[in-house]
Amino acid sequence: MAEEWVEQMQNQVNTLEKLEKYINVSDDEREAIEALDTRWGISPYFASLMDKDDPDCPIRKQVIPSMKEQVNKYGMENYLVWKENRATEEVRPDCIARQYTDRIAFTVVEICAIYCRHCFRKELVVDQDLQLRFDLDEGLAWIAEHTEIRDVLITGGDPLLLSDDKLEYLITKLREMPHIEMIRIGSRLPIVLPHRITEGLKKAIGGYHKVPVWLNTQCNHPKEITEKTAKAVYELLSCGINVGNQAVLLKGINDDVDTFRELHLKLLRTRIRPYYVFYCEPAPGIDHFRTTVEKGAELIRDAIRGHTTGLAQPMYVLATKIGKIPLMPDYYIIDKNEKEYTLRNYKGETTKIPNIPE
Ligand code: SF4
What we know:
The protein has 358 residues and is an alpha/beta fold. The protein contains 14 helices and 12 strands.
């Protein structure tokens, strides 16, 4: 008998008929599903979290195609080629993307349990305009030759959709390379298909080893977190895998103070460390999800700083082809002279501390 997560994948909600079993499909959703040439699909578990009657449900908006995807006033064509420096002279396999000297992203698969409408890798994963070759051994051989690489991010698609055997092979091969100090996995499965966190997976990627595995998931709204996710995260932590979150700032989904704060509080209650909040990148066809650049810093200031523990503070960043640019609020030092600094807190209160000459 197939494992539950495999059955979930086999029964992905990816036709209008299947979707109608979960929600009352809106006109825009129906038109987009029928008209757009795009890959979409939702694990039955995640589909069950959607609001049946509200087309503005934060889960619905992330997973069901919209006619708004046809608008592309502010998105960049060939975004992924630009962002991942794929047009540079360095010879690299398709599966290796590089923005830094010491770390790379290793794309191992292009399928997902859900197809996020805001995905910055939409051209590859969702719309499939960009075709790449994914060859694990080719990627591993390249990493083995490049001894300057310390840190490998295994990404996709969703890498945890590889079989336990393939994941174990990948992790074991990477850990055998003396220059690899850490392995990161980017996966939405703890949120959208927590059934994937099985004993077999824990055996494949967990356990003590001097090269740690960090898993960063993506959760964008508190409604995405259930008891099932909390238990899956606990299982990951209990076998030595650190779990963080990389949220994407999404207009109309999490760009208000209350939702943004509750998201980060609930992540901590679930034992997931908020790591990044990404500005929604200018990939084509996702204008409708994008806020102003400043919005994320304002939310960190108004929803998080001072309102909860430092453990719940993600870094707000803009991901670019030259790496991540942090965009944090900058309101703390309001004056400085030879004698003292004047500092402001999240409530607008001020205080002074002495200045020390260099
Ligand atoms: S799970 Fe990740 S890679 Fe897949 S569509 Fe969503 S954001 Fe993109």
